[in-house]
Amino acid sequence: MKSVWYIELLSFFGSLLAGGFFLLFLAVLGLLNYEYLDLFLGLLIIILVSILTFVPNEDKKESSRPVLFSFLNQGFVLFLFGVYKVFKPEDTSFLWTIVSFQLVFFLFFSNPIQRFLSPILVFVFSGVLLFEYKILLFTPLLTTVCLSLLYFYTLPKRLPEKFESLPYSLSVSLLCLAGFSFFPEFKQTPEISEIQSIIIFIAGCVLFYTELDTKTNSLTIVSVILFFGLIFFPTLETPGIMASFFLLLIAFARGYHFLSYLAWCFLILFYFGFYYDLDTSLLEKSKMMLTSSLLFFVTYVCLRFSPLGKKR
């Protein structure tokens, strides 16, 4: 029996409160002051909850999913707390622990909510690791990995069973990686963000070309790609704009309608960030935005009445 969304939401908050009161009870007794107890108790909760996810549910109720998800992450936080107090790891080692456990949760924890969240955390914390190691130049490589996985797992019949949320997780991960461009470290080296934008643009071109009918005139395809490249050229230092349009293309070409709503929301946010970061006068900003709007309108009209529009 499938439960409605608000029951799952209430179940999640209820289990969160229950786990919180349990931890508060342990804190009042002073048991959380014992480092090894935190470590082993957190690990025990993780193992028990992981086992429960594979136990067959006779009633087929889905309201237990947020409960298990809540207790798993509370156990994980308690485990991390114990690891930090016992081993005193460096920041990078601590981040590696989080990334490793999230990969394990994604592969072996049979819970759709966790499988949605884990890829996002893996990519985000991997990006933070690049910050810690001061090798931001590898951020475009991480973006390429995310793009490749998104491209592959949105293909028809490529998505493994029980991993239906993976395209959405990878989409959010891509937007998060693109959002790193607003950090001061990236603004000091804008070439990294520009490389990210170019990679996303190339991926969009490949997707655009492969999804079109093979009988389409190659000159038309190249003209459209070059025209869009001209439009996106001023926004190279804001790869989030390119990433949002890539998700719009994925949503349109492969039928992921929710991604289009997600892309439009983030496109507005990224355009606002791009507009805010422009180091120029308000008049120049207005001219640039007006020109971009006119170009997009002309593009829409041309595509709408072109052979490409008629085929769609």
UniProtKB/TrEMBL annotation:
KW DNA repair (keyword) present: no
Keyword vocabulary terms for this entry: Membrane, Transmembrane, Transmembrane helix
Repeat recorded as keyword: no
Alphabetized Pfam families for the sequence: DUF4401 (PF14351)
Source organism of the structure: Leptospira terpstrae serovar Hualin str. LT 11-33 = ATCC 700639
Domain DUF4401: 5-302
Transmembrane segment boundaries: 12-33, 39-55, 67-87, 93-109, 116-131, 166-183, 195-212, 224-252, 258-276, 288-306
Protein name, per record: PF14351 domain protein
